[in-house]
């Protein structure tokens, strides 16, 4: 056999016997349904960003921005997307479960009070004498005490009615409550789907009324992060690419959501995504500093604000709650 044939034979043998590089399976839990704001993760999936990191990512819907943290703590989902303020409380209640945020997505949270013009509620103080519909596990309602303090509201003059997530917007539309707590881009468009004209809906973003809190972030199970740091880094890198791509072309990005939620209204989901990008994700701070990181001083101040609504047994520091060790360089996070 000639040397050339020998080399070709050897190469063919390697092709036959060399196993394909296995991808690492990763289960990722969202906070809620497959709606417009979940586009970045599906874009990362469809564009092959996760695959390029050697990851086979499965994305599941979730029970809300608070309840799902327990899924990450238990390891049912090693990585999840939930409210960082609720993580502070969870860590305090479960000191042996050191779940930590590794990528900030909602630089400004969508926590809001949503009402209708006919109620006359145009500012926080106007809630006095009114009925507020609020699901007990709602991430926005969790900030109520801090919101009350920052805006000088007499909480005794506001009637709180515990309502379920599915009936929250219908009750507001029907006049059974005067206002509701919720994520701005969820409640606004849920009301639109109920036939309420956009001009009749009033959204009071808590971030515009004294709250310095952050919102939802990617968080990881501590044991998983310790055992698989490169997987976490790869997931974070790919997700950031998905966020940047979504911000560049929301209309194309929404197609990735619609593939998984064919009964949704594409126009509404696109508008929902654009609202989340404008108000929560692509903020002035993110434009200046890149996607994914936090300002430690602001995070520390937000912990102080959470302490208004919750009595910490052991108040955490910013570094207890968030780490930037899995983030790529700033140049790779710029919009």
TrEMBL record:
- What InterPro entries does UniProt report for this protein, alphabetically? NMT1/THI5, SsuA/THI5
List the transmembrane segments: none
Q: What does UniProt give as the signal peptide span?
A: 1-22
- SsuA/THI5-like domain location is 39-253
Mitochondrion keyword on record: no
The record's listing under Gene3D superfamilies reads: Periplasmic binding protein-like II (3.40.190.10)
GO biological process terms on file: thiamine biosynthetic process
What's one Pfam family here?
A: NMT1
Q: Would you say which domain of life the source belongs to?
A: Bacteria
**Keyword annotations:** Signal
Q: Which protein is depicted?
A: ABC transporter substrate-binding protein
Source organism per UniProt = Xanthobacter autotrophicus
